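tool_log.txt
---
The assistant was asked to compare two proteins side by side. It first ran the structure predictor on the initial sequence, then on the second. Raw inputs and outputs are pasted verbatim so the downstream comparison step can read them without reformatting.
(1)
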Amino acid sequence: MPAVLEREASKLFSTAVFREVATGKSTQRADAAASRLRGGLGLGRDVTNHEVVEVAYDLMRRGYRSEYFYRNLLTSKVFVGRHRAARSVLLNEFRIGDSIADCVLVNGRGAVYEIKTEFDSPEKLRSQLTSYYRAFPYATVVAHTDDADRYLRLLEDGPVGLTTVGPRDRLSAVKDADAKTDAFDIRTMFNALRLSEVTGILRAEFGALPAVPNGVRYAAYLELADQMSPIAFQARMQAALKTRELRSSRQLMLTSSLAPLRAVVAQLDPDEQQQDRLLSWLSARGA
């Protein structure tokens, strides 16, 4: 299978593309990607977009295992498989300091998953992990089983865990993650949260908040947050993040036929109307 077609398949699995479909903004990019794949894969126009998605995902599985493939695998195996998408939150592409965590699972503990595909290098790994430990106690690198030795050599003396993806998409724990709580940084955690989450934390800790102009609100709230211990702020941060549980799309997430799109659904959490738009697009056939 041509490598260009494998890369084309990976482009279809974009949160931005499916957000446009779900919100009703446009199906143009999704239609164009599906059309190119129909032609490249020799699929007829009567094939639905859902079938194109399934074939494209299988193409990634067998060849071009992109970052999305790994994120979707974690969503299916960990978030859905272990937790049934309930009483836990999976955050995809979550900014922490100067880095963006591929996945963060918040349940009884906060765990960051940093994906390193066969196409990645470990060059930025140290700085990424430094950022993650400023906000969360656990971090695990997820890599292909062929790269296990390379990453194990880098991680063997520290708290970072290592999970590998092997045959039949099996996740195997090569090294368990240990907790690291001495690097929490209030500014990093503060900046990772939404304003409503920050104000909720500060009200729970201090009561009424000072009435300040919008222009100085950030500095005033951060000054308050700095009065808390990093451990206490981190605990409240995780509790605040837990409120981001799926509100509308848990059943969609559990639908086995939509397994290739679970990472997209986790990130979008589409409401009923948005789900209808997604399902309508998936059922449509080529023009």
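(2)
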Amino acid sequence: MAAIGCNDCVWKFFDVPLVTEWSKTFGEYSEFLKNPFRAVAPANLIKVNHGGDDGVGAWSALSIFGGIVYAVLGLIISIALTAGMVGAPMGQFIMNFIMQIITVLLVANIGWFSLVKRPAVAKPDGGAAESLPCCCLIFCCVSCKCVPLAYAVVVWIIALVLIIQPLQAIGLCGACFLFIVPPLIYGFFMIFFGISAFKIWKEVFKGEKPNIVGPAVATGCGVAGAQKTGEPSGGAQPIGQVDADAKDLEKGTAQPADAVHAESKQYA
């Protein structure tokens, strides 16, 4: 287990402070819903040309929109194909729709908080607190470096199951093949969501830097107005970590963007 980072996990039961920290991030996450491409351009998302944190922020928000389309389209197809049938389970269709929306929201938002925010946890042996990815179950949370890898595998399995499940209904009617369309839409977003989670595992556990080709994408871990720079993303930034560029500005070793712009206008 040490080979994948699961040898130093911290388990906490009924962790109220962690839930409180999660609730404080709703406003920050809403910014991704307003603009999923605030940190990474659409072309770079498809090419996986981004850091893990930025990818999870964007794809988790996009997966909500894809999940809503999945739930709405599934409801419409179910009602349309059973129209006129005696005893059609309309109530069941509506309940499935509600549960799908709730599940989509929880998978996306909790996944983003667990993988990107990485709240600090104190070690049981009294060591210094460390920012680690976490996975919160119904009554307990585990903070561990292998959580992003586990999350990636889980979302890939969910996407696969959702796509395979409707195949058993294809032969029930002439138009029943339509049942496979909604999960294909949602599965597309889940696959890329899992890829971004896998990149976080490589950055957090293995210490690899994101391989970004061409102009760098902005990295801000959810901070609005992140600027693009001429250097690749430095990888994951947990809560409380100060961006290196900001430090350079404070020390005077880096020139502010406004000054550079002014100079360029002077020599133009």
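---
observation on (2): Residues 2-267 form one domain. Strands lie at 10-13, 120-121, 130-131, 134-136, 140-143.
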